[in-house]
Design a protein that fits this description.
Blueprint (H helix, E strand, L loop, with lengths): L2 H15 L6 H13 L16 H16 L17 H8 L1 H21 L10 H5 L1 H12 L30 H6 L16 H10 L10
Helix pairs in contact: 2-3, 3-7
């Protein structure tokens, strides 16, 4: 995509992720490491080398922070073709930003409870709202490598957890994705619907992004 559109989506990422903002650069590097070392001890987030989903999330956080702060040596093959915006990186990862978003979320819930007759039980959603980025990643990486079926033998434990994956917008077709990591459609069988795929096609048709075939 062009630089203006890249900056637009960078900003949109920050506004939509809020307190759980993740750096596109660090995320891209971890994702490439995950594919290269899938379900081995070098995988940054495999459920098969951690005790439970919480220890997997904690280990992933430590590796992410090391990559983000450039305190971990990264193989050259992973350090390429990702967007960078230093100002937004520093802003999104600052405690001032994370706490600020948290205060806004809490204020929204309180106002909804006081003025919009929201039931008190909804306050239990606050932890999910505050940590939705890591929780989404935990669901995808834990479930997508433990539960479901396999269309392909990828020499790892990747699974397709759902037949119709509207819950994670296609991300739980992990077995398909590990077989064809460069495919923009995570669905493989006729019944596997990736809801993000038509969005990508639409953005391409509108010339906001350009789909390129890998040579």
């Amino acid at each position: 995509m062009s630089k203006p559109w890249e900056r637009f989506f960078y900003l949109l990422t920050y506004l939509s992720q809020g307190s759980s903002y993740l750096s596109p650069r660090a995320y891209a590097i971890l994702h490439r490491m995950h594919h290269a070392f899938s379900d081995t001890e070098r995988d940054p987030h495999s459920p098969h080398h951690t005790k439970n989903v919480f220890t997997m999330m904690w280990e992933t956080k430590n590796i992410y922070n090391a990559v983000l702060s450039r305190k971990r040596a990264i193989e050259t093959r992973f350090e390429r073709n990702y967007p960078e915006w230093n100002f937004m990186e520093k802003l999104g990862d600052s405690w001032m930003s994370r706490v600020g978003w948290g205060v806004l979320y809490i204020a929204f819930y309180v106002l909804a409870y006081v003025y919009l007759d929201m039931h008190w039980i909804f306050f239990f959603l606050l932890p999910i709202h505050l940590l939705m980025g890591p929780i989404h990643g935990a669901i995808v990486n834990w479930s997508g490598h433990k539960y479901g079926y396999q269309n392909f033998d990828n020499a790892d434990e990747s699974k397709n957890s759902l037949i119709f994956d509207f819950l994670m917008m296609g991300e739980l077709f992990q077995n398909n994705h590990h077989k064809k990591p460069n495919s923009i459609n995570f669905g493989s069988k006729w019944f596997e619907v990736d809801p993000t795929y038509p969005v990508i096609k639409l953005l391409n048709k509108l010339k906001i992004i350009e789909i390129r075939k890998k040579v």
